[in-house]
Amino acid sequence: MIEGLLGRKIGMTQIFDETGAVVPVTVIEVGPCVVTQIRVRERDGYEAVQIGFGEVKPKSLNKPQRGHLAGAGKLVRHLREFSADNPSDYKVGDVLGPDLFATGQMVDVTGTSKGKGFQGVVRRHGFNGGPRTHGQSDRLRAPGSIGAGTDPGHVFKNTRMAGQMGNRRVTVMNLTVVEVISDRNLLLVRGSVPGAKNGLVMIRRAAKGN
């Protein structure tokens, strides 16, 4: 079985379970994903299944890209590789959908978080800022000291400072699959997943769950 699939975050909603409790869920359009290439150890040095997702017009791809996808019979925007228990079970052109997952299964969802631009340390890292009195009226949200002067004489790498916030790869682990709607290629998972609406996400079998 292949490890995961590609999908598109549609948004959040809520459903009711059998006890009548409200369950917050994220709706993900999973597939249809098409197998575009099979990686084999003899040729590539490793084994994997490359899949594509998201239809695209021919003019959006260059000639080498269209040639690579010719065997799959479908032009796609996104390509990703996933490991599989037995890659030889798949062939180029196979179409995969949310049936890969089952209700109650734990999955890991990876996406690109929302970009929030350049932010200070209070919002980015949760700093408290400086005192509000005693001549500090202009240092309310400042980081304070970032290191000693003479020794070591430089700012240590990875010191928490202001900068770009968000717009990075984030993985949320151990989300529960609440419902699989195969005829509409929809997957409902409990909780939130990274990214904005219509953002690309990868849904994989939980690495630490189940």
How would you spell out the order of helices and strands? EEEHEHEEEEHEEEE
* Terminal residue distance: 16 Å
Low-confidence stretches: none
Task: Work out the helicity level.
Answer: under 10%
Strand fraction: 35-45%
**How many independent structural domains?**
2
| CATH class bucket of the largest domain | Mainly Beta
Largest sheet: 6 strands, antiparallel, barrel
User: How do the strands line up in the largest sheet?
Assistant: 1-2-11-10-7-12
> Which geometry do the CA atoms define?
extended
| Total DSSP helices | 3
Strand segment tally = 12
Any chance you could write out the topology, listing elements then pairs?
Blueprint: E1 4-16, E2 22-30, E3 33-39, H1 41-44, E4 48-55, H2 63-68, E5 76-82, E6 95-96, E7 106-112, E8 117-119, H3 121-125, E9 163-165, E10 169-181, E11 186-190, E12 200-205
Antiparallel strand pairs: 1-2, 1-12, 2-11, 3-4, 3-6, 4-5, 7-10, 7-12, 8-9, 10-11
Could you explain how this protein is built, in words?
The protein is mostly beta strands and 210 residues long. 7% of the residues lie in helices and 40% in strands. The protein has helices at 41-44, 63-68, 121-125; strands spanning 4-16, 22-30, 33-39, 48-55, 76-82, 95-96, 106-112, 117-119, 163-165, 169-181, 186-190, 200-205. Strands 1-2-11-10-7-12 form a six-stranded antiparallel β-barrel. A four-stranded antiparallel sheet has the order 5-4-3-6. The longest helix has 6 residues, at 63-68. The protein is extended, with a radius of gyration of 23 Å. The two termini are 16 Å apart.
